[in-house]
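Q: Can I borrow your eye for a moment on a structure tokenisation matter? Would you mind producing a protein record, from residues through to fold? Write it directly below this note and I will take it from there.
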Amino acid sequence: MIGRTVTHYRVLRQIGAGGMGVVYLAEDLRLQRKVALKFLPPAVALDPQTKARFTREAQAASALDHPHVATVYEISEWEGQPFIAMAFYDGETLRQRLEGGRLMIAEAAMVARQLATGLAAAHAAGIVHRDLKPANVILTREGQAKILDFGIARIVTPDAETATRFTNPGATVGTAAYMSPEQARGEDVDERTDIWAFGVVLYEILTGRLPFHGKHPAAVLMSIMSDSPLPIRQARPDVPPEIEHILERALEKDRAARTIRATDIASELQAYQTKVASDELARARSAVSWRRPPAIAAIVLALLLAAGWLGWSFYRDARERDARRTLIDIERLVDSEKFVEAFVLARQVQSRLDGDPALARLWSVINRPTSIHTDPPGADIYFQDYKAPADAWIFLGRSPLENVAVPNGYLRWRVEKAGFTSAHGAPFVWLAFPTARFSFRLFATDDAPDEMVYVEPQDDAVSLYIPGLDHLPSVPMRGFWIDRHEVTNREFKRFVDAGGYTKAQYWQHAFSAKGRPMTWQDAMTWFRDATGRQGPATWELGNYPDGKADDPVTGVSWYEAAAYAAFVGKTLPTIYHWSMAADQRSSAWVIPASNFSGRELASAGRYRGMNAHGTFDMAGNVKEWCWNLADRDKRYILGGAWDEPAYTFSDADARDSFDRRANFGFRGVRENSGEPAPAAAARMVSFEARDYSAETPVGDELFAAYRSQYSYDRTDLSPKVERVDDEHADWTREKVTFAAAYGGERVIAYLYLPKRRDPPFQTVVFFPGAGSIFMRSSETLLDLREFDFLIKSGRALVYPVYKSTYERGDGLQSDFPSATSNWRDHVITWSKDLARTIDYLETRPDVDRERLAYVGVSWGAQQGALLPALEPRLKTLVLVAGGFPLQKTRPEVDPINFAPRITVPTLMLSGRYDFSYPSASSQEPMFRLLGTPVEHKRRIIYEAAHDIPRHDLIRDSLDWLDRYLGPVR
């Protein structure tokens, strides 16, 4: 290995080996810097599942940018061996340092504080180390402690976990010595496991010995679970009470009692270090009172004053340097919109940098003065970052609170008062607003319905947050209760067992099929399970599948949902109730925490996607029936499902009231007043659509004027390959950036190159659905699950991060067009991003510039009726689940004026029941107006809604690309 080149790293020498693999010092030939290359054990390369987990863990670790966490540059693979490229630090491991004996108290406190700070940053990002130990800590020559292998240790095999050796004869070897009791029992672990390991490490660096002993790993694990360590003050009498107190709380065997957090430890150690420094200074100053002979006293006094001044200066400068370094961390966190972490750090350095203009500037961004009132008052208020672990609560104060400092981020809130049910929620506040004001109403424990949450309007009238329906007038609403979770199989079974399908009193709504009335007896024949018994379509023999009691009930029609609601004394929510509780404005946070996994339906409440008022699973899991009619047969069903695209949380949908699909469910509401829902909220709500049959595209002369607004100067791209990921078996992914055609910005693009074909590659330019508008990290949230077959077919794929999507978000909240200058300007930037992406592809010798295709899905398919008209370098189009928009927009960005100018072969893949782009009013006009000759355009209609069946999608897309780009080589 020595002297060989691994991708772009030249290996210099081996610098470590152990259960986690072999580490080499290498030179990065591109950036001319030293790096550490860690090659993982062979088992990782041989086991696909372990290898995939390693990749995920390494990606999570690489997101940590903290001075006390080792930097991960990239993960890759070389000759079948996975490796990590990390920053190289000149120093020694904490294990090597301990071979010279225990640490001095001051040094131990400094190292421990830095470790706790690194752990706090990781825990705030939702990352648990799982294998904190001295061998995984590096001490640099500059005195910094850095934690290694964050998140990577999880992949170590059990045999490898006993590879590290200790110097004490007879002591247990390996990671077992640092395991928490719950880890030793094989239970799931969280950040409290890291707190335990931290306590073991702190005990060891203070005493030079481990708190738990044994001659073999099993004996050590038994000691951890049953023995108490020698009290630290007996092992080392000079340990101060502050550190003793930290150890006692960190080494609580009961995980529930181990409540101290890494942020608490870091704060307490910082306070201890400050106290020690102040005491030293005070002792130096007291020396002036000594009584000595005059000459000697003068000399001694001068020496003491000089020493004191030097010591204080060194201490003061060190503290200020540390605070200034923290300012850099704060600024990075602010740039990443990690406001809670930035808030915590800023509070730590406020006293040291009082009046500092840099801190004042950052504080104005981090902090948002917030007022919180509760009814009744006197409730304890807690908050946490929306993405934080479940128990990472920060106490704010007792209500009422006026203009208190709160992080300027999207937060979860918890409100508690003895004798009352707790209130939870994540109320939406525009992050740009300078202040915030919330109110929470608490109910006596006996007055709150079980498993329901209270929703109270914050305004006199409520508007809908559903794009496409947001033009509807506001409606006065009262407070109401709504189910915390969807109705489960277990709950619906009570209705079935009580004869719910045989009792007409629960079926309170007239039956109608295709506009014709139906009797109750006839309607009941529709509501059968898979075996012909009465019950949901997904059940058998009148019962739900084994082990699925807590899953949401599915396969129910609107009528069945309404009957169950009547059975339990509730109703179905109107679209106003539902949207008010869900608050789709928070979709950027709620969607990533909800079940749009594409894998399976989850039990109610398993995902942490909490909505504004404390409900769960309103995004994803199952679509939920609502009260309102959309036309004579269809009722609204909102929220999207686990097997649908994420943007369906925000979009309106309506289905036939008899429809009983396997992803249809519901939840109930109850008016707090006991009165029926407001009539204005329960009325029929038609989804208004443009009548394209009555509209005509503009002529060529006017279109030429519109087209001129899209022109740009083809200036230097200044392209840069930011990173190359080679871990996937089928492709290599390059993250590239290049100059945008506007505003001095840079476009991010991901280029996927197939491994099993030879260049130059046919290349697909991708335009995503509207879910990308609500995501904020292309690194972690960009999802190619539905379209990975394009790369596997042997074609390259480029996925530009268009303006307004992912980290290039700019406040755009919807993919629905509007007649505003803002929408016009956005469409023009998307056109320029697409053009600049193709400009970049033309610089690549591995891309066949004569064989470029455009694939757009949903929003991208809608834009596919406009953008390709401006881009002659595209040879064919595949538009998936799209159509003309139903909203009015300005003529210079209206697809009706561009579609006739598209002449390349175009394939449209459409769902017959697509509510976002209805067949008659949206899909058909778009297909008809495309300027492509009739023999070169095709529209395939599937028995689907806004999701095309995957096998059909693959077959029909690849057949089309093979036909018009040619088979791949």
Remarks:
- The longest strand covers residues 847-857.
- Residues 369-442 form a domain with the Immunoglobulin-like fold (CATH 2.60.40).
- The radius of gyration is 32 Å.
- Confidence is low (pLDDT under 50) at residues 153-174, 287-292, 309-315.
